[in-house]
Amino acid sequence: MPGMNKARIAVFVSGGGTNLEALLKAQETGQIPHGEIVLVLSSAAGAYALERAKNHNILGFAVPRKGAAQEVFEAGLTEKLEEYRIDMIILAGFLSILSEEFVKRWPDRIVNIHPSLIPAFCGKGYYGLKVHEAALERGVKLTGATVHLVNEIPDGGRILLQKAVEVQPDDTPEVLQRRVMERAEWVLLPQAAELVAAQIVEEGQEKNV
Ligand code: GAR
Prior knowledge:
The protein has helices spanning 18-28, 48-55, 70-83, 100-104, 129-138, 173-208; strands at 7-13, 35-42, 59-62, 88-91, 110-114, 142-149, 159-166. The chain is of the alpha/beta class. A 7-stranded mixed β-sheet has the order 3-2-1-4-5-6-7, sandwiched between helices.
């Protein structure tokens, strides 16, 4: 993309969207100078994340996963990504699996947040609250969050940022999830967005000289 100065970002969500909220606030306070969140795509029609997008005047669409074949679902996503000329994707609490074919079309351009210190508690079946249940069951004293590029399914790809969070003796999965979000996820995700956006802009400019 010759001469580009901001990478155009799509955020994929499935639920509450607190990570989306953190990204939108970061954008509004100038913490993502090399990127612009232009689009929010939700895999669930009624996701509160879509309300959040609307409240921040950001375009949001549901591309429902439920009842659709994987190819149809991903064709729906791709159509929007092309229409809005998206450069990078952030999975922010996106709980649907993307196929290898989809991921291969976006090398080093998909960023994911996972609520543990990868390689602990990741892979098949580890999503949302289940990750924290597993961490408590195992008795780990430290957990946290990881932001990584998605180049392989489901949690493969280079790790960009990690932040550790202490587990407290009387934690429930819900309490631990909240602490990991507040102290790690909402901090790391905007930082990673800027990191990858800056890289894209730099590459775009290189092509132009
Ligand atoms: C977050 O904890 C996120 O890390 C996790 O789901 C939650 C969504 O919260 N994602 C995964 O488990 C992905 N494997 P949010 O909708 O409020 O951002």
